Structures are given as C-alpha cells and as structure tokens.
C-alpha cells in the first residue's frame, strides 16, 4: 500500500505550456492517418474512405480508481485500454487518442510522468497515436479523460442492436477476475487502514490483481474475427458485468437470451477468491465489472469457425423477446437476468 508521493518536482515550476511540452516530447506518431498531432489548436486526421468511431471515458479519483493501491503507471495504461476496448467492441480499429487531465497540487511532475509512461506504453501496444488533449488543475484529486478514435468499413461496424433469434452468444477470456481483484485490494486496504503495521498479503493472487490493475483490450479477438471473416451480428465490451451487457444487447436488438451458468468461463483464482469471501463466483462474472472482454453474437452457421478461435466460448443463444432473458443455473433452474445486478440466485 502506498501513500501519495510528497517529494518531487512541483508542477508549477514548469507552467502549463512547459508541462505539455514535457509530456509530449516522448510521443511518437505511427499512423498514416495522423497528419498533425500535438502542437496546434487541433489535431488533423485523414481517414480515407472509412467510417469513424469515437468514444470517451472519464476516470475520476475516488470514484473509478483508488490511488492507495493503483500504481500511476497502471492507471495511465488502463485509461487508454478502456477506450480502445470500446472501439474494438464496434469491430473497429483504434487509431488515435486524446488525453485530458486535471491534476491537483498534490501531484508532482514525477507522478504525472508515471501516468504518461503507462499511457505511452498502451499507445504503443495498441498502435494508436496520442494526438492531443487538455491539461488543467483541479482543487482536489485527479481526473483523466481519454477519447479514442477508430475506423472501420461501414459494413463491418458492429452495433449492440443486430442480434437475431438463434444466434450464438459468445464471450472471450474469463469473467469476474477483475472484480475478484478489486475485492481483494479493498479487503487488504481495510486491514492496512486499521493497522498500518500489517503489510498486505497478496501472494497467490497475481492473475486477479493484474486483471484489476492492468487490464487488456481484446485486439487479438478483433483480428481473429477478421481473419475468420466473421462479422458478429452484435457486440459489446464487458465493462459492467455479463448480466448488464447481455441486457443491453437484448434490449437494443429486441430479443431475449438463454445462457448456461456452467458455460461461463471463470478462472481458478476467481473461484478461490469468491470462496475466501464466502461469495458465489458466478455473481463475480455476472455482476462484477471491468473485465474488458468481448461479448458478441454470431449466426448459428458460424459455430465451427468460432470454435476454432482460441479464447472464445459459446455460452448460450439468442431467443425471442417473449422468452425473456435468463440463465440456466447448474441445478437446471431458470434464473431471470437483471439489468443491474442480479438477484434471486437461490430461488
Ligand atoms: P489550447 O489553448 O488550444 O487548448 P493547449 O495549450 O491546451 O491548447 O494545448 C496545446 C497542444 O497540446 C494541443 O495540441 C493539445 O491537444 C495538446 N495537449 C494539451 N494537453 C495535453 C495532454 N494532457 N496530453 C496530450 N496533449 C495535450
Ligand atoms: Mg487546452
């Protein structure tokens, strides 16, 4: 656990322009569509012939992250990842990002540098150019807002609204691990606050911690779908838990769904954490958040192709809206899914 760094270079020694110059000196531009990046009143892009997708996420200290246990480098990385994830969820390719930050005096130049190290690392990994942003002070706390810009052929863009009856429901990776990681960090934080002598015990939980602190977006799946020439009928990224994302797809597509509890992919460490906390691991997957996996639907005849893509699981199918949205539990009972959260687990 860490207290905020109180030693280091005061940002006011650079001034706003000095800071922007400092932050942008390591920025490399690699996208052909970036004509002008940082340094003018606006960036200039040249997206020839494709459609543009734009998405923004705002991360606020104390609401979306806790600096007691979030390393600043990871925070910068995650701020980019959550945005490119939204672009992939449109079946589009992220190309540029802008980053806006509001910082209080509590943050030193070294602290801001760490955030940007993470930002630059993610930009490199996901092959996006940092082309602009805004910098301002805040009275308390830290806010980071990222906008991602991507492109896609018009006929490839995948909305939440295209799911058809009998389509297969697919998810990538495993679910609930980021939530399990958050539960662990919150528990250890409480212990630390009650007794700072006790150092947190995080051993054996590497995977769930990484899922919470350093999530990745599914660039690989976007590419695999392209290689397999599959355009999903609908798609969404899983940021708020499987249940509410399924709800979004069903509501937007005007259909119902049936999924199977036993088919939901859950990692062993997530199981273990849920057990330690006396909670049900399926609830971590259904109601947890921040997995940044992809949830999508494909026509039934794509089953063989989908099966060949590593890390994609079929967990159910789309049905008529009149059937509702439900999960077949391990004991074969049918449980209604909820938009936010999900109750009646034992019913
Ligand atoms: P303006 O007064 O027009 O808002 P700024 O002085 O805020 O211009 O920004 C100058 C340049 O630096 C612009 O290209 C802007 O996009 C970029 N920029 C400002 N803040 C950031 C930041 N935090 N990260 C990346 N680029 C930034
Ligand atoms: Mg500005």
Provide a concise account of the structure shown.
Helix 2 runs parallel beside helix 3 and helix 4 packs across helix 5. The protein has ten helices and 13 strands. Helices cover 32% and strands 23% of the residues.
Describe the 3D structure:
This protein has 347 residues and is an alpha+beta fold. The protein has 2 domains: 11-152, 60s Ribosomal Protein L30, Chain: A, CATH 3.30.1330.10; 168-336, Phosphoribosyl-aminoimidazole Synthetase, Chain A, domain 2. The protein contains 10 helices and 13 strands. It has helices spanning 15-24, 72-88, 109-125, 177-194, 206-213, 219-227, 242-253, 268-276, 281-287, 303-307, and strands at 34-36, 44-45, 51-60, 93-103, 129-137, 143-152, 168-172, 234-238, 256-260, 293-298, 312-319, 325-328, 334-336. It has a 7-stranded mixed beta sheet, sandwiched between helices. Strands 3-6-4-5 form a 4-stranded mixed beta sheet, covered by helices on one side. It is flat. It starts with 14 loop residues before the first helix and ends in an 11-residue tail after the last strand. Residues 341-347 have low confidence and may be disordered. Residues 20, 23-24, 38-41, 99-101, 130, 132-135 line the site of adenosine-5'-diphosphate (ADP). Adenosine-5'-diphosphate (ADP) binds next to helix 1, strand 4 and strand 5.
